[in-house]
């Protein structure tokens, strides 16, 4: 697919996940293949302009980390414009604007004009950014405030008119948070609202089949995956293969999971230093462990690590303990295998609540801005 001037190697995107989609994670996922585009965590425009060290760390990149969009967050037009210029100078392929949900609830009681004011304000801000840079500007939004205010199609149309190169849409309203089902019809209404630019659908894609279903049901050009990549950094490779051939590659085995876990950890240590990197990795490793099968001792141990030696000891202890759940080839016995993942929008609506599979967990954070 095309995004602005770029021809992407796949129509699969890594969604920004504040606190996770740092350079170590992006490099780890990219190396596994299938990913066409990645975006940084959201970065406060003013902090970036002030060269705040945390903001600079968020935009840190490397030659293998391409193509890359930097996601900006802010509401002051001049700051957003100047920060976009800085992203271009830093070598980013694109600037993405975090719009969580820019249109306020004021529209609820006949507030159409208020909504248009908000849209006008947003359009003016975006226009200023588009005019200031040569690289494409994209926007990421939800469907709207709540089910009565599905404003994303209108917003997408306005943004296309002011020169935005692509729209990313998470198929939930702000009121939904991360609960309930992703609304494919809602994503479709954004696809049909724009004329030329690609719309990238997002929300709850945890399997190759779910990505295909989202593409087919909504007509979106690409799919962006966030939490699904926590569980399964191989999801992009497996999904691209499935889209191209219809063949479902098996999920990686335990040895491969450990190999990639080690790569990811090694990059944390390199990027953040051994002590800080080990501490930060405490919240990453449990996601890998969700697909390990029984893993309680590992989850308890890994959240205490402060060094590479601790990390390796945790793996060694766990691997020895896990053997009791495995066959002679070292693979989990069937009855201990984790349940298959299913996207919210792929569930059978008649599935009784008692057997409904766990929704994807949401780590703590400011949902308002996502
Ligand atoms: C921990 C976490 C951090 C997130 N951070 C951001 C962010 O920085 N910017 C953003 O636009 N969305 C953010 N999101 C929203 C995701 O990009 C994505 O839209 C949402 O998680 C739905 O996709 P998924 O079901 O594939 O995870 C975040 C979500 C989570 C769970």
Give a short synopsis of this structure.
The chain is α/β, with parallel strands linked by helices and 370 residues long. It has 15 helices and ten strands.
Beta fraction of the residues?
A: 5-15%
Q: Report Rg.
A: 21 Å
Shape: globular
What does the oligomeric state look like here? single chain
Return the CATH architecture of the largest domain: Alpha-Beta Barrel
Give me the strand/helix succession: EEEHEHHEHEHEHEHEHEHHHHHHH
Structure summary, number of beta strands = 10
Number of helices: 15
Distance between the termini: 25 Å
CATH topology of the largest domain: TIM Barrel
- What's the domain count? 2
Q: Give the class from helix and strand content and strand pairing.
A: alpha/beta
Low-confidence stretches: none
Explain what this protein looks like in three dimensions:
The chain is an alpha/beta fold and 370 residues long. The protein has 2 domains: 2-245, Aldolase class I (TIM Barrel); 254-290 and 292-335. Helices cover 42% and strands 12% of the residues. The protein has helices at residues 23-32, 45-49, 53-58, 77-90, 112-132, 152-161, 184-193, 208-218, 227-231, 235-245, 254-272, 274-281, 285-289, 296-302, 308-322, and strands at 2-3, 6-7, 12-14, 37-44, 68-73, 94-98, 137-142, 166-170, 199-202, 222-225. The strands form 2 sheets. Strands 3-4-5-6-7-8-9-10 form an 8-stranded parallel beta barrel, surrounded by 6 helices. Strands 1-2 form a two-stranded antiparallel ribbon. The chain binds flavin mononucleotide.
Features of the shown structure:
370 residues, alpha/beta, TIM Barrel, 2 domains, 8-stranded parallel beta barrel, two-stranded antiparallel sheet, 15 helices, 10 strands, 42% helix, 12% strand, binds flavin mononucleotide
């Amino acid at each position: 697919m095309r995004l602005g001037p770029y021809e992407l190697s796949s129509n699969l995107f890594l969604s920004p996940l504040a606190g996770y989609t740092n350079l170590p994670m992006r490099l780890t996922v990219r190396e596994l293949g299938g990913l066409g585009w990645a975006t940084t965590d959201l970065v406060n425009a003013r902090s970036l302009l002030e060269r705040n060290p945390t903001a600079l760390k968020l935009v840190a990149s490397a030659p293998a980390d391409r193509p890359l969009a930097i996601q900006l967050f802010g509401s002051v037009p001049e700051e957003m414009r100047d920060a976009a210029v800085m992203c271009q100078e830093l070598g980013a392929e694109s600037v993405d604007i975090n719009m969580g949900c820019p249109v306020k609830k004021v529209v609820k009681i006949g507030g159409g004009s208020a909504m248009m004011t908000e849209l006008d304000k947003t359009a003016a801000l975006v226009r200023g950014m588009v005019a200031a840079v040569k690289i494409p500007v994209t926007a990421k939004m939800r469907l709207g405030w709540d089910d009565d205010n599905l404003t994303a199609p209108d917003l997408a149309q306005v943004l296309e008119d002011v020169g935005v190169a692509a729209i990313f849409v998470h198929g939930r309203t702000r009121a939904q948070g991360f609960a309930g089902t992703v609304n494919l019809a809602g994503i479709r209404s954004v696809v049909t609202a724009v004329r030329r630019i690609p719309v990238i659908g997002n929300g709850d894609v945890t399997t190759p089949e779910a990505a295909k279903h989202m593409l087919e049901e909504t007509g979106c050009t690409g799919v962006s995956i966030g939490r699904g990549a926590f569980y399964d950094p191989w999801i992009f490779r497996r999904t691209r293969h499935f889209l191209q051939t219809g063949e479902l590659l098996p999920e990686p085995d335990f040895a491969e999971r450990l190999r990639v876990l080690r790569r990811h950890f090694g990059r944390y240590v390199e990027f953040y230093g051994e002590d800080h990197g080990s501490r930060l990795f405490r919240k990453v490793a449990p996601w890998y462990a969700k697909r390990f099968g029984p893993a309680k001792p590992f989850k308890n141990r890994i959240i205490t690590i402060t060094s590479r030696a601790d990390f390796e000891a945790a793996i060694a202890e766990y691997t020895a303990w896990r053997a009791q759940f495995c066959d002679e080839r070292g693979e989990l016995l069937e009855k201990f295998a984790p349940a298959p993942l299913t996207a919210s929008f792929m569930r059978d609506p008649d599935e009784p609540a008692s057997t409904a599979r766990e929704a994807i967990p949401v780590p703590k954070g400011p949902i308002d801005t996502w």
